[in-house]
Design goal:
six-stranded mixed β-sheet; binds adenosine-5'-triphosphate; five-stranded antiparallel β-sheet
Length: about 400
């Protein structure tokens, strides 16, 4: 993390349930399917009590990594450890992990309580103990009193909770979640996100979730690993991934971004400057980049960090001295506006034709300037806002 750059992120949440020990460790793990390398030399520690998300585009290897932990796939190289022990010889049912799949995977012909208690029954747990633990698990997932229902008498969200209760009832050391919310509609997904977080904090079990949905990972996880083509691109907290991405891939994959290719003209401790062909003025930064002067770099600028101001002249009459105060200012013309309720998204065309996205919150819309199509504007951003990426 670049501590000189500013962040809009809140201070990290206190997580006393997260311990220092690595409950899960992948050590140089590679998985090949024939000639295809699905997971490429991954080394990763997940701490006990974390809600860890594996995030990445389709086919990047995240499910394969999770399946190696669950015992459904065997690494071609490297080791997977739980609590410091190599689990290579353990079949899936002997591993201290349980997996919740995206397709709910509840038995349709069994009552909710029997679904939840199924694994305990198979393990030979006494009926009284099964009942007690099933009731406890149903209460945890807010399904108390629904134990006698059949799965087809439940909503999608409730069925997903049955699957969760069934995994939790066995008290695994680690709960694996494969796209757990992808089958739910948007509103329910939002609700289940916060429920999953509080459930995880309550039970204190380490959760490891696979998702391709960056909003979901940012909202839920204490830490995320972003994967690209089998390799770990970055491992960080959600806020650090968003504010301080380490590469173009991560900046682009996590959130919306305006990316400009440029040349690093100055690079000092508290100041750097990048010249970008698509921007009429250099990009000034209030922090160093530690890249070689003259190197090709990429300036990543989040749309909500760009302010928009009215520009008096027509698009053809640009006078920089009329620009609002601020380190970085470029002129443009609004070409598109999308009103989204809580915010409005604008697309502004710069002098050379490059279009830039900027988002404005509608929080104080009543006292904000209104903008319209084809209006000349200044785009301005603070010197701490852009991330400068070397690759
Ligand atoms: P998605 O989000 O689409 O599930 P993912 O990131 O989870 O994708 P994986 O399912 O881990 O990706 O797959 C990684 C790569 O390995 C893909 O190219 C996939 O086609 C390939 N792959 C996965 N399982 C097998 C298999 N059993 N045999 C051959 N190739 C496989």
């Amino acid at each position: 993390m670049t501590d000189t750059a500013a962040s809009n992120a809140p201070a990290p949440k206190s997580t006393p349930h997260v311990k220092d020990n690595a409950i899960i460790r992948f050590e140089g793990v590679t998985k090949r399917f024939g000639k295809m390398v699905a997971v490429d030399n991954v080394t990763l520690d997940v701490r006990e009590g974390e809600f860890f998300a594996l995030l990445g585009p389709s086919g990047c290897g995240k499910t394969t990594l999770l399946r190696m932990l669950a015992g459904f796939e065997t690494p071609s190289e490297g080791r997977v450890l739980i609590d410091g022990k190599d689990i290579a010889g353990l079949p899936p049912n002997k591993r201290p992990v349980n997996m919740v799949f995206q397709s709910y995977a509840v038995f349709p012909h069994m009552k909710v309580a029997d679904n939840v208690g199924y694994g305990l029954k198979m393990d030979g747990v006494a009926p009284d103990e099964i009942k007690r633990r099933v009731d406890e698990a149903l209460e945890l997932v807010k399904l108390s009193g629904l134990g006698d229902r059949m799965p087809d008498q439940l909503s999608g969200g409730q069925r997903q909770r049955v699957a969760l209760a069934r995994a939790l009832v066995k008290r695994p050391r680690v709960l694996l979640l494969d796209e757990p919310l992808s089958a739910l509609d948007a509103k329910l997904r939002d609700q289940m996100r916060s429920e999953l977080t509080s459930l995880q904090e309550k039970v204190g079990i380490t959760f490891m979730m696979v998702t391709h949905d960056q909003d979901e990972a940012l909202a839920i996880a204490t830490r995320c690993a972003v994967m690209n083509r089998g390799v770990l691109a970055q491992v960080a907290t959600p806020a650090d991934l968003y504010e301080f991405p380490n590469s173009r891939f991560v900046a682009d994959f996590v959130g919306s971004v305006n990316m400009f290719e440029g040349v690093l003209e100055k690079d000092e401790t508290n100041h750097a400057q990048v010249r970008c062909a698509e921007l009429s003025a250099p990009v000034y930064l209030d922090h160093g980049v530690t890249g070689a002067k003259g190197a090709t770099v990429w300036v990543a600028l989040r749309p909500e960090k760009i302010e928009m101001h009215k520009r008096a002249e027509g698009a053809a009459l640009i006078k920089m001295e009329d620009a609002p105060a601020g380190a970085n200012v470029v002129p443009g013309v609004i070409r598109d506006i999308v009103y989204l309720g809580s915010e409005t998204n604008y697309e502004v065309e710069l002098e050379g034709g490059r279009r830039v996205k900027t988002f404005r919150s509608n929080l104080t819309r009543y006292d904000q300037e209104d903008f319209t199509w084809d209006e000349p504007v200044w785009l301005a951003w603070h010197a701490c806002s852009p991330a400068v990426l070397l690759s």
